[in-house]
Amino acid sequence: MKPRECRARVTAVRRLAPEVLEAELAMVEPPALDFAAGQWVSVPFGPKTVRAYSIASPPLDGRHVTLCADVAPGGLGSRWFRGLAPGAEVAFKGPLGGFVFSRADARRPLFVAEEIGIVPIRAMLAELYATGFGRPAALVYWARDPGWLVYGGEFSSLSRRYPNFAYHPVVASADGPWRHAPDGLAEIVGRVVADVTGLVAYVAGGSAAIDRVRDVLMARGLDRKSVKWEKFW
């Protein structure tokens, strides 16, 4: 799908966590956005200044697109996202990115997310289970506290409705190896993955967490190319 210049109108803004906002957009031009779950859009703030936002919604109805962002950094993009309100028109380029799930890949997927890294993975899981995905899959999701497990209710519901889907939320604690995201994710991934045979991993979050999770999986024998990743910081 070739990226193109797009316009959309904000229809709703929701606060999912103290510093996580979700914006619903109705497409204006084109009337519907053709994208793959896991891709992102680029919002311009000047000739050489852009910010990327992963699409949180599945591509089941391209007339409506959901963006979700951690606005805690307080930079240019954070201020823009905080200022979004219903009725505002936004311009962006998209879709972009290759962090997408291949339905043709017969391997069982392991999804691993660190806080806001959940956004593209949420889109993937929403599409998979809305379209009859029946293979075993698992999600390991780390956050600093329960309030930051945005979309956690959706994943709990999926795990109840689909026995082949395992959800492993991980919340930081005052002690224990999971108090920091890189170690916490790696610790839980090491516990969850007993055998890497026939496994493909999709990891999204900070670079340190991605590296630690990849190291754990490779130490178990997983090929490096079988770890797909999307770096948020």
Question: How far apart are the first and last residues' alpha carbons, in Å?
Answer: 25 Å
Overall radius of gyration: 17 Å
Quickly give the CATH architecture of the largest domain.
Answer: 3-Layer(aba) Sandwich
- What is the fold-level CATH name, i.e. the topology of the largest domain? Rossmann fold
CATH homologous superfamily of the largest domain - what is it? Nucleotide-binding domain of ferredoxin-NADP reductase (FNR) module
Secondary-structure element string: EEEEEHEEHEHEHEHE
What value does the average pLDDT take? 94
In the predicted model, the low-confidence regions spanning at least 5 consecutive residues are none
Q: What share of residues is helical?
A: 10-25%
Provide the domain count.
2
CATH class of the largest domain: Alpha Beta
Widest β-sheet, arrangement of strands:
4-3-6-1-2-5
How much strand? Answer: 35-45%
Number of helices: 5
Secondary structure class reads alpha/beta
Could you give the count of β-strands?
11
Q: What global shape is seen?
A: globular
| Biggest sheet record | 6 strands, antiparallel
Overview of the structural elements:
By secondary structure, the chain is an alpha/beta fold. It folds into two domains: 4-96, Elongation Factor Tu (Ef-tu), domain 3 (Beta Barrel); 108-231, Rossmann fold (3-Layer(aba) Sandwich). The chain has helices spanning 76-82, 118-130, 152-161, 181-192, 207-219; strands at 4-17, 20-29, 40-44, 50-54, 64-70, 89-96, 108-114, 137-143, 165-171, 199-205, 227-231. The strands form two sheets. It has a six-stranded antiparallel beta sheet. A five-stranded parallel beta sheet has the order 9-8-7-10-11, sandwiched between helices. Helix 4 (181-192) runs parallel beside helix 5. The longest helix has 13 residues, at 118-130.
